[in-house]
């Protein structure tokens, strides 16, 4: 067959090696057969359009345990591979993409039909654009390249050395693309997007100094000098502990420039101004002040006096009166006094004694506070949710002490997901004495109501095994559901087998509040699901109290394993900054609040939104 005819025959064939290796003809996925058949295709794929000698293929396929007639066995595999790639064409057509050429075999395919080659071509073009200072075009090419990434290359074949080496090489190429994308975005002034994208990457690659440098730059430009400096110290400590080396010259240069406020802000300067409280300072230009580290470490710095703080909240995506209420599940019982750690006795008249005029218009019953002070975390989780619902499924966890605002943050993320048209399934894990898998019974019930036809189709084969989990009972009777426990792994596997195809039909976000209260079986099922999330457009967002410190001799719990897994993106919330507290107070107090009162409220609440709410209600 001529090369021209062969090229026409192969039109419509596409190969994906990011994630599980897939061959597509049009929209139809071709069956590539058993694992070793797929491995043969992978061995030819990593040397696309190159002849691979027969002895080399035999050694790489079977190692030191070849079959009795290895050459004949290899020929059988080649025949199967040709049939698999023929996609119904007449004999002698596309099957000859895999052809014999002494001294071995070659996979003859246009590189643009393979996602990995498309990825690398786009990155090379973006490098040229960057050299020409065309940052917008470079950013667009890099975004297109990174959108091709669906997971670890040759995911199911990394036990074979050639695919493992190629997978590692492509992962390094991906990190380079991420760094180039960050460089282009910084040049365009898109600092918030850089921070959101690089934060999870920095957690996974803490010694990647170029990546850390871009993240430090983005943090500094957003007015987060303290966060940038802490990131440098963590990186330096990690490099010393793991590799026995100090930070590189370039990273140290960035660090020194941040300390001296000499790092340029690029095309768009970051907005960084301070709180000026009190009527006598309303028209005064406040001198710049250094940002002070807080327990949270990521809070915004807002400029306003007490009368203009409401408008400043618009930068936090909060609308007047639209703040998320803190439900009972926030971790503090309703009607409880201010925690003793806040340093406030019952009925102490805190606001009056701190300098807020008595009767200044503070509501006596506060059901909510506007969402403020978590822009960084919201940006990170928003980027994570976008990626998860686009096929890079994963688990994200928000942790912190009771009342610190975990529920409010997850509600903001879910609101953004719903506004983008995604389905959100939310449940609370409270009720440790409930039945095993009670959390998942409620999740399945919600999905059966929102997608009745699809749910019935994918769950039919598991109805006998799952029993009560699939019962259509009223939601207030959910705690009475008791699935069979004879084969817990089969139950857990069946639930995953229902959720995964539903997500592939239409992506959705699972939100589990108070995960620390979930039963052991539900946590095990969640762990199994997270292992299956790569390439599935399903995100799982959880909120959990901080794990209790345990002695070295105490075994780790299922919750510890989930929150400490390398697969999990974990954000721990600390207290709000003094500036964020001032902005919150200004939205609820119809009078000017001086700096001393704001400081007192911040210190006594510890930056906890719940404690602040209780303090304001005492006025």
From TrEMBL:
Name the keywords, alphabetized: DNA-binding, Transcription, Transcription regulation
Segments of the chain annotated as binding DNA: 5-109
Q: Which InterPro entries match?
A: AAA_16, AfsR-DnrI-RedD_regulator, BTAD, OmpR/PhoB-type_DNA-bd
Xref: SMART domains: BTAD, Trans_reg_C
- OmpR/PhoB-type domain residues are 5-109
Show the segment(s) annotated as Disordered. Answer: 278-335
The name of this protein is AAA family ATPase
